[in-house]
Amino acid sequence: MTSPVRPRPLKEAANKVTQTLGMLTALVVAAAGYGIVTAVQGDALEGLLGAIPGGITLIGNVILAFGIVSKAEPLVTPTSDPRDNDMNPLT
Fold first, then answer.
1. What DSSP line would sit under 7-29, residue for residue?
2. Tens digit of each residue's pLDDT (9 = 90 or more) over 10-52
3. Least crowded by CB within 10 Å, which of 7, 42, 69, 91?
């Protein structure tokens, strides 16, 4: 039996955070390049944005070290496609 592709809300949330921070960093670099913010302000904002993924990575590594994500993700019922253990739709 082939199982359908299931939503992965935890992974999708992490991807959205990564994409958002990447876009914000690109905007800060562009703003500094066009003179909207000074180079010093741009460097400060880039440093701040650079610290956020580092903190998220640190927390993620701690969580992974304890195996929380691998144990919790199968227990998460995606609201977009709720199914029981036999893959029968719950709605």
1. P-HHHHHHHHHHHHHHHHHHHHH
2. 777 777 877 887 888 888 888 888 888 888 888 888 888 778 7
3. 91
Question: In this structure, how many other beta carbons lie within 10 angstroms of the beta carbon of residue 49?
Answer: 17
Give per-residue pLDDT as tens, 66-84: 776 667 776 776 777 788 8
Q: What is the pTM of this model?
A: 0.49
Assign residue 40 a region (left: φ > 0; alpha: ψ between -120 and 50; beta: otherwise): alpha
Nearest to 30 by CA among 22, 1, 77, 56: 22
Helix (H, G, I), strand (E, B) or coil at 90: coil
Could you tell me the residue ranges of all domains in the chain?
A: 10-75
